[in-house]
Amino acid sequence: MVANFKVFKKIAPNGKVTVYLGKRDFVDHVSAVEPIDGVALIDSSYLTDRKLFGQVVCSFRYGREEDECMGLNFQKDLYLCSAQIYPPPEKREWNLSKLQERLLKKLGPNAFPFRFEIPPNAPASIMIQPGPEDQGEPCGVSYFVKTFIGDHETDRSHRRSTVSLAIRKVQFAPSKVGRQPCTVVRKDFMLSPGELELEVVLDKQVYHHGEKIAANICIRNNSNKVVKKIKAMVQQGVDVMLFQNGQYRSSIASIETDEGCPLQPGSSMQKVIYLLPELTNNKDRRGIALDGQLKRNDTNLASSTLMNPEQKDCFGIIVSYAVKVKLYLGALSGELTAELPFILMHPKPNSRPKLFHADSQADVETFRQESIDIDAM
């Protein structure tokens, strides 16, 4: 039996350096991030008196590219880790992965392995959806693995010998189920006896993308006011940690109903409202946070950001979700609002390790790089 495994490959414009990665999504387990294991292949005629360096770069764009003028730049590049790939170190401090062993055996003596460790407090890959008329790179956090020929790690790279391959730092839903979200809010009135009580219960704490959210609503009207309308919505909270006032919320799914209303004094009502947060209904809305996007792949609403409670210095973009229920009592009586946070993420994929047999075959996906005339250099 021949087993196939996928490899991502990208070549420098001059064709002298090639980078191979086994995957482009690296999972953040909150306490640690999966290491980036890859192999760099260098042309034999290019090895003399040259050094090859590798870096993991986190690019954070926090302003529109079209607004940049007079030297103002709304992008920061953070070099999270850096290492020399060639000449290789005398002693390797880590063990080769199975994929690296197979690639080194297949590519020959001019292939050199590398490994990068992303710090656990690095931000997740998130993109802010631009408006229909916006141009340029969208705001958000993106990652890429960069290899280049130079004299030292901080040397300026030349485009013809540089390889930049986009990757993503992702998180998956926790396997441990938390407590069922529940809240009770009450409102009394200055010149009226009794109070209005609203109880909201979600069917679970963690939802996967594409799942309906069931909000169980119970209203007990012990006041002399009348409930005229009910509105339930899912709100996405975005916190851009670079700014002090960089927080905003967007309603991504909502239902407004007057079924069972008006709810008269002394009455009670219980009903379930279903909400479905989807990108389909928010395609052209500026400011919606999306999961980081790789070329040729579709994306979805950004997953909730899971953080270590001990982590104080946050960077990047933090995304959260909440169900908000409003009772409308009329112009003079105001509103009663209840809010419940929840987690929206992708389920954790099957984590069974891949077995590479001696007759394994690689399914290589090559990314085009703009070609240049080598003789003209």
TrEMBL record:
One of its GO terms (molecular function) is G protein-coupled receptor binding. Keywords: Sensory transduction, Vision. GO terms for cellular component: cytoplasm; rhabdomere. It holds the Pfam family Arrestin_C. GO terms for biological process: G protein-coupled receptor internalization; negative regulation of phospholipase C-activating phototransduction signaling pathway; photoreceptor cell maintenance; sensory perception of smell; signal transduction; visual perception. Residues 192-349 form the Arrestin C-terminal-like domain. InterPro entries: Arrestin, Arrestin-like_C, Arrestin-like_N, Arrestin_C-like, Arrestin_N, Ig_E-set. The keyword Phosphoprotein does not apply. It comes from the Eukaryota. SUPFAM superfamilies: E set domains. Belongs to the arrestin family. This is Phosrestin-2.
